[in-house]
Structures are given as structure tokens and as C-alpha cells.
Amino acid sequence: MAAALFILLATVAVAAETSKAIGIGARGGGYFIGGEWNANLFGGAEINVGIHKNFAIGLLGTYGRTDGAGLELNLDSEDLPQLIEFDDSLKITHYIAELVGTFYFSPDGVWRPFLTTGVGVTFWRVDDQEGNRVEVPDLNDAFFDYEDQQLTVMFGGGMEHFISDNFSIGVAARYHLFTEVLSDFKDERDIGGSDGLDNPTGFFEFGLMLTGYLGSCEDDDEDGVCNDDDRCPETPAGCIVDEETGCELDRDGDGVCDGLDACPDTPAGCEVDAAGCTLDSDNDGVCDGIDRCDDTPEGCEVDEHGCPLDADGDGVWDCRDDCPDTPEDCNVDDKGCPLDGDGDGICDGLDECPGTPQGLEVDDVGCPVSYKIQKELVLVGVTFPVNQATLTPESKEQLDKVVESLKALPHVKLEIAGHTDNSGSREYNIELSQRRAESVRDYFIEQGIDPDRLIAKGYGPDNPKYDNSTAEGRSKNRRVELIRLN
Q1: Which of 16, 144, 372, 456 qualifies as a FRET site for 437, CA 20 to 30 Å off?
Q2: Residue 239, CB-side half-sphere exposure with 13 Å CA sphere
Q3: How far apart are alpha carbons 384 and 346 in whole angstroms?
Q4: At 10, is the pLDDT very low, low, confident or very high (cuts 50, 70, 90)?
Q5: What is the pLDDT of residue 132?
Q6: DSSP-derived secondary structure letter, 259
Q7: Nearest in space to 112 (alpha carbons), one of 155, 71, 172, 70
């Protein structure tokens, strides 16, 4: 038998689907009877039906006969008749029939470990060496056949190995516990009590089994679900499937089925390789698919989205930033350090006077402390001859002060606004104020001020600031104003 087992195990093994199949098997091996514990041979048969790939129910039949270590009746005792042990005098024959259920742990594998349990009835009798039944007396000296039936409870386990789609071999061990239920050994038949009878208490078997399966369903993708029930009939080998539908299970939803997925807990949204493990093309610790910055340089610390950190928000990543504490809104170079075009200590972006000449003291917004141009400034002392637009020498002295400020504040743009009183026609006054504004603009340009910074416009009498009904008011309304445009 050992040689046969070796040959069978050496053959090519295949997984088989036994759901809805009928299995018919033969069993054989050794057994012990409780109370005697001498090894004997047994044989048996089994028929089962697969109701699920993990479960089967069926009928189990077992036959066993002792070979020695029997019992002998001593009728010479002065006490009640009793049985005493005597080698090779009597033999016990067992017939056991049980309804069983079996659970398979790996129903889709070539090797199928299982547990089994059941309930049934055993019939046993005692014969002599010639096969004659033995009779014993009860308490009333009435003789009866020494035999009985008892309710049995069976439990055991084993391993089944498929050698083809329809045949398997295996090993199993089972214990059949004999109870007192259904027993006739009571009342007047309780001769000397159960100890006196020395009735067997159980039947422990161990051996081999060979099973053939009939009517097993077709399972083309060998996923353990019959073709008729399989909604996914082309499941790749090795995938774990839903037991009802036959479709692949994918716990982490990464597109690689459980069973083939080497990384079964992949976060949602991650791209994976053929083994189901996350891809991370830039090696920043954030998987492709979630990584919004998939070209992060090596060594850069990243946020939860896989993008490099920029603590000072200057647009240069921390991993490349030589000045990681740059103030907000400063313009920086490609190393993350603040730019300061005029070298006044106030970075470009925060410097409201970005062209300040070197050496001038500036305030906290980068403008020279000694030079200010108000939003609107009347040029006091800038006068013109009557009905003329020619600057007087005194007017030029006043304008030279403005030129000095404009050179110190090269970013400032101005509107030069000319105004008149209401004497004369409006059209004439507008033309005169325009010429006077242009005279001031021309003088600024002659002194080196960029023309693009200057706009000249005449308003005539339209925007008086003072009362034109008085000589003083009219005199003040004849003015030139500077209006800052930025």
C-alpha cells in the first residue's frame, strides 16, 4: 500500500472542482477499539455530494473485526455471570453507518485538508473462533446474543490529494465515539454493569482512501466556480474569486486580483505594476497616480501630494533654496535669494522705489528718506509772464528741486497739469494752460528726466481751487500742479 501511495503521489497533480459532484470512495487501514487498544484492520466506503466547494454531505460505512484479544465468558463464577479477557478466544465485529459532513479548507487546491464530523449508529456482536454467535445470561439467567447497537458521534480530519480531475487519494483519521443511547444493555441485561461486560467505548481508525467523482461540473478557468455559474469565465490562474460569481476579488481596487497582488493594501488612486505594488517614478515616497509632481528631484522633501516643499513661498523648492526664509512677495533668483536691483536693502517686489540711486538712505518701503513727491503738489513759485508760457529764472530754480527728487525716484510718473483763472475765453485759457504745462515738461526732459515718465495736460479754468471773484483767488488759480500717477 505504501508503494502504491508513493506512485500515486508522484503522478501529475491537478486541482478539481467537486461542487455538485458525487464522490464515491473506498477506505482501509487500521483501528483500535476503546478498552482493548489492539490494532486491527478495517474497511469501509463513503458516498458524498458537494453542496458547495467548501462543503459536502454524505454517508460513511465502516466494517471492522478484531483479530484476537477477545472476550471469554466465565460461567463457573459464584457471582453473576461476567466476561473476562482471554486472548484469541472471542472476536468482535463492528458495522458502523453514519451521516457525515465535511469541510474543505482549500477547495481550489491540489491538496485539500479537511475536517469531518457525523452521527450514526454502530452494530457489533461477539462471535467465537468458528463464527458462532456467543450467548450470555442476563440477571434472570435468560440467555441472549452478545451483541448491541449504539448511537455514535464521529469526528476526524485528513488530507485529500487530486491525481486527476476525477480521482483523489488521501489519508484520514476518525474517532467513532459509542454512546449509551440505543443500547440494550440495561435493566435485566446489565449483567455485572457495563464494567462487567467490558463493552467497547469507541472505535479509532486511521488509513488511506481513494475517491472517484462523478458529474463534477466543468470549470475552464479552474477558479472553483462551475462554468454555468461563473460570470467571469476567464479568470487568470491564481486569482481569488467570489465564491458565488467566480469574478476576481480585488480588495484594494488596484486592478490586480487578490491572490496575485503582492501588495494587497495599495492606497486608492495609486498606479501599480504587474504585481500590484505601487509605482513611484521619482522615488519621493508618494505613488504615481496620487503624485501631482511626478518629476521631483531626488532628495527633495515633499508634501502629501508629492510636490516639493517651499516653506517661504518664493517659488524655489526648499531642496534648492539657499535662502529659505525669504520675506513674502520678494522677487528671488533661481537659488531662492531676494533680488535687490538698486542695492538699497529692500528686495525687489517690496521696494516701492526700485531705482533709488546708491548711497541714499531709504525707508522701510525702499524710498529715499530725503526725497518725497506728494500725490498732488502745487509748484509754488513757478510763474509765467502774462499770456506767455516761458519759464522765468525763478521758476527754473523751483523746478530744479523737483528734478532732483525725480532723479532720486526714477520709478515715479507724473502728470503736469496747467491751470488758469476765468479771465478771457475758455478756449484760449485751455490752450495757454496746455503750453505752460508743456514748458514745464520740456524743462524736466532737458534736465535728463525720461519723457515716458511725464504727461502734460492743460485744464484752463475748469478746475479752480480758489475764488475767481477776487484778485488773490485768480492769482492762485493760475498754477502748475504735479500729480503722481503711481
Answers
A1: 372
A2: 23
A3: 41
A4: very low
A5: 83
A6: T
A7: 172
Say how many C-beta atoms besides its own lie within 10 A of residue 323's C-beta. 16
Cell of 310: 517651499
Q: Which H or E element spans position 482? A: strand 480-484
- Joined together, the cell numbers standing for residue 44 give 469501509
What does the DSSP assignment read for 285-337? SS-TTT-S-TTPPTT--B-TTSPBP-TT-SSS-GGG-S-TTPPTT--B-TTSP
Distance CA 23, CA 216 (A): 9
Per-position b or e across 363-394, b if 16+ CB within 10 A of its CB: eeebbbeebebeeebebeebbbeeeebebeee
Alpha-carbon 450 to chain mean position: 65
For position 189, what pLDDT does the model report?
57
pLDDT over 70, % of the chain: 86
187: alpha, beta or left? (left if phi > 0; alpha if psi -120 to 50)? left
> Which candidate, 424, 432, 474, places its Cα nearest to that of 456?
432
pLDDT in tens, 223-240: 878 787 788 988 998 899
Ordered domains of the chain (ranges, CATH):
2-214 (2.40.160.20), 376-484 (3.30.1330.60)
- As a residue count, the chain comes to 486
Count CB neighbours of 479 within 10 A. 22
Edge-to-edge strand list for the sheet holding 376-378:
376-378, 480-484, 414-419, 454-460
The model's pTM is 0.46
Give tens-digit pLDDT for 441-465: 999 999 999 999 999 999 999 999 8
Q: How far apart are CA 214 and CA 50, in angstroms?
A: 11
Find out whether 86 and 129 touch, Cβ atoms under 8 Å: no
